[in-house]
Amino acid sequence: MIKYLMTTLLLACLAFATAAQEKVTISGYVKDKATGEGLIGSSVSVQELPGTGVITNEYGFYSLTLPKGNYTLNYNYLGYVTIAKQVQLTASQKLDMQLEQNSTVLKEVVVSTRKEDNNVRSMEMSTLKMQVAEIKTMPALLGEVDLVKAIQLMPGVQNAGEGTSGFYVRGGGSDQNLILLDEAPVYNASHLMGFFSVFNADAIKDVQLYKGGIPAQHGGRLSSLLDIRMKEGNNQKMEVSGGIGTIASRLTVEAPIVKDKSSFIVSGRRTYADMFFGLSSDEDIKGNDLYFYDLNAKVNYTLNDKNRLFMSGYFGRDVAATKDFMMNWGNATGTVRWNHLFNDRLFSNTTFIFSNFDYALGSREEESEFTWKSQIRDYGVKNDYTYFLNPKNQLRFGLHATYHHFMPAEIKAGRNSYVNDLKLSSTNALETALYLSNEHQITDKLTIDYGLRFSTFANIGPGKVYRYDDAFETPVDTVNYSRFEKIKSYYGLEPRIAAKYDLNDASSVKASYNRTLQYLHQLSNSTSAMPFDIWIPSGTYVKPQIADQVAVGYFRNFHDNMFEGSVEVYYKWMGNQIDYKDYAEILLNERLETELLRGTGEAYGAEFYLRKQKGLLTGWVSYTLSKTERTVPGINDGRSYAPRHDRRHSGNLVLSYEFSPSINIGANWTYSTGGAITMPVGRYEYNGKTYPVYSERNGYRLPAYHRLDLSATYEKPRNEFKKYGSSWTLSIYNAYARKNAFSIYFRESEDDRTKTEAVKTYLFGLLPSLTYNFKF
Predict the structure, then answer these.
(1) Coiled-coil regions in this chain (predicted)?
(2) Is residue 270 part of a domain?
(3) I need a surface site. Which of 222, 329, 428, 639 has the fewest CB within 10 A?
């Protein structure tokens, strides 16, 4: 059946291709002249054939098949000098192009290095693309530039709470976001209990978030894809850059290994609060540790015109420890990629992937000494192909496979400790996917991208499964499975389709539908980005999550592309959604399935976005009106309720103003409705003890959240003879000292013990920081 469907789709794609007589192909790479890095999403158009062109892929590669003849090819990338190249096509040929940054307009278009009308012309909808240069102009918490916090300022994206780097997209949970760093999944993207993300902006090249219309080559999560690409390293000359901030310092080195052929980049970051503990007169503080570090590294090598290798890795860790207690957690990812050109129209990329997230905590006191560890680890391979059939059809197809290993918890006690050893059962899973899609320009105005993804998932041994009584509470039997023995398997089809219709030169209408399946589930007792979450696979009692999303949008540019605007509406239905029973026990529970309930969810809303991308004043304003609900039998007597991340209103204003070539100021203001919480509404006494009576699930709201951040950057002017550049950035986080609720807890009133009072805690008042950046 699956073979038949895939074959039918392939034949449908090929049927749209027109017969090609006396046609030849021109192909190559579009690169940054200064660094040699490929330019993702650069436009290559044919002047003599309006509407004919192509966009470079993730590695800067393009391919155009045209009738023989003489043409003018326009190579365009916003912020770079456009090149018009005269070509005589009598036979297929390879033509690489290097674009040079346009220094006279670079600063005023730093908001976006895309083609000016990309939002109208491209197939992409429900997609956010941000450049690191833009993110670095924004005010930052304690001076640490954070791309995840920048994404939280976009329509359709909600933050997880004050100071945290978790995020929610269009009503989905935080675990429903797939985060890829050079194609490797990152399972916990938070540093310092969620106040910062793990992504060092100095090492990042490209950031793209898909809120809907997710391409068929990606899957495994319901809500979104955050695709992050690391820099490849300058293959023209050596560069050193870095910064010294309030809590952390950074250093990046990139240089050619063989000029024009091979390069590397190494980027590191570390906080140093622990270095000041030793200066304290308090002996209890002197021995404490509190820091995090990141290390990004990447090497690439061009073997020949048809083959190129990339190797990249990320290593990061948080450490928090006192003389009595320790805690650490971190990620490690690694990818090896091989780009291969079979011919001038067929491009392939083969990727080998490793990802690991683990955490440990424990006591150092002799009588209670223990170490508690947990881990999730992936080994994967992806084989992706892009076939440039002709200027109107671009095929993508491939096969992915990932082996997952889950170790939920293992406790090892010290020799003289009263704590007992404990190890919860580990489990494994194999996830595979096969996909095919085609982007087809049917007419000059209508383009359709259609595709199909077929995914499978098998929960495999060694492992054990409990059999329960009718009440699903008490185990009556245990079934043990040997190594690689199938415990439970699932599969599903995930169709994807998107369409764009150009109304005129300045506006278009887009629509998309996609079905997504998610086989991994995150269990947590906290909405903050704590490191103690547990990931579990779909299995005997936990089915895969499923979502169907439709979206329609209107996109319009104004005043010669100075302003771009959009309005999108969406509806998302979600099945097999997991929530917890009242008073559920998640921690160190061998039988988690007995604490879980399953139901459905829906989310819908409208997103408004207006952006100014030219001139001295740039930035955007966004507003999201949305609603998210869950319906889970066993919760609220089966009535619908709002999950904690539901926020009806959300608005953001982001501005950047260039006073002079040396001085830039920025401001961010954000507002959102308070998150949903469950509160005690009464209490009762039994046997001399007082017990609370709670409201329905998430029946109340936290206070509204709003905050203003400011920044000012002074960049020391330098002329062409000075190789050293530097800048100072002053940031003020929460400029009017708003006391936003981090959490609310309840206690007996100190004045009247017959009453219960709510106590709000908050993290930050007005918080200034100063950062010095350099580059040479």
Answers:
(1) none
(2) yes
(3) 639
